[in-house]
Specification:
Ammonium transporter fold; mainly alpha; 350 residues; 14 helices
Length: 350
């Protein structure tokens, strides 16, 4: 009898690095921890409770969804933890906790579960939740409190514990009494856009400004991103393309009218550009995979950020730029597919 041989055919990749999804996600959490710690240092107890609240709600929501659909719980892959942390880091430190819970629920249900879970979501879940909160609670999400309050480690920002469906308490008087002299509650982007006051770049670089919980310290975000690049858990080309594109286009505007538009360095280090480029634009699920595609993807998001900031009605445009990039990601992949070896570059209709 002839000896029969069987062959198992599989699609690429045929060689695996042995790195599982939970390992990658856990290292992203490690990279986010210094940013979270700095947020607590600058904004105090309110920032800490905000991050705990969004993370717990995201994890519980994902666990309940898995149980209701009779699937094994996926909370052990750490993706829900990342969503909760990133959502908190994009919110004002005094954001009411009940609103943050609603945003966390929306991030997991609409931003992730409705697409089929991790690996199938088209958009970054944390930004989906943030966009919902921007539309639902525009006043609360644009109410900023200055950092380094005197009693930030022993008392909450008044708006943190606001009751549901009630107007948050005003933080103006609290800021006057509790904040160190020299700090302003307005963000650098708002000051530049509406008052034409430019914040010094060193203050932006080291994070001593008002803003979202985790967007202020540019140097710390860059160092945390470098950790992920060294561990090969992030494609460095995406944040590099986004930051380079934002620098070039903002430089063109600045060259045309330096009295009206901010310098390119201010554009790079202000607002949520660093946080978005390093931790959100580089989302493995929502970004392209082709070599050329990642550069186009990053460049488009940098361009969108500058256009929205300088020509739109809002001072910040990173969130919308990344969501637009996520929407274009599949099309970028389709248009930048490399030529298969041995075939023509021209597509032949079947």
């Amino acid at each position: 009898m002839a000896h029969e041989q069987s062959f198992l055919l599989r699609t690429s990749p045929h060689i695996h690095a042995g790195t599982a999804v939970p390992v990658i996600m856990r290292n992203v959490v490690y990279a986010l921890l210094p940013v979270c710690a700095f947020s607590v240092y600058v904004f105090g107890l309110s920032a800490l409770v905000l991050m705990l609240c969004t993370t717990v709600v995201c994890v519980l929501t994902e666990h309940v969804i898995c149980l209701s659909s009779k699937k094994p719980s996926s909370v052990s892959d750490w993706s829900a933890v990342i969503t909760g942390l990133l959502l908190a880091l994009t919110l004002p430190p005094g954001f009411p906790l009940w609103m943050a819970c609603v945003g966390s629920l929306f991030s997991i249900v609409v931003g992730k579960a409705i697409f089929g879970g991790l690996g199938f979501n088209l958009f970054n879940p944390a930004l989906v939740g943030r966009a919902f909160l921007q539309a639902a609670f525009p006043v609360a999400i644009t109410t900023w409190t200055p950092g380094c309050a005197l009693h930030r480690f022993i008392e909450f920002i008044p708006s943190t514990l606001a009751w549901p469906l009630m107007s948050p308490p005003s933080v103006v008087e609290w800021s006057k009494q509790a904040v160190v002299d020299g700090f302003s509650g307005a963000t650098p982007l708002a000051l530049q856009k509406f008052d034409h006051v430019t914040t010094e770049v060193p203050k932006l670089f080291f994070g001593m400004t008002a803003g979202s919980s985790g967007e202020t310290c540019a140097i710390l975000i860059l160092l945390c991103g470098a950790y992920l690049v060294v561990r090969k858990f992030m494609n460095w080309r995406i944040p590099a393309a986004m930051l380079l594109s934002a620098f070039i286009f903002s430089a063109l505007f600045y060259w045309a009218d330096p009295a009206k538009y901010p310098s390119p360095l201010f554009t790079l280090f202000s607002g949520g550009l660093m946080l978005g480029a390093v931790f959100m634009a580089s989302d493995m699920v929502a970004s392209p995979v082709t070599p050329l595609g990642v550069w186009i993807y990053g460049a488009l998001m940098g361009f969108f950020t500058v256009i929205i900031r300088l020509k739109g009605g809002l001072p910040e445009g990173v969130m919308y730029a990344i969501l637009l990039g996520n929407a274009l990601s599949p099309h970028i992949d389709n248009l930048t597919q490399p030529r298969v070896y041995g075939t023509s570059r021209k597509r032949v209709k079947p």
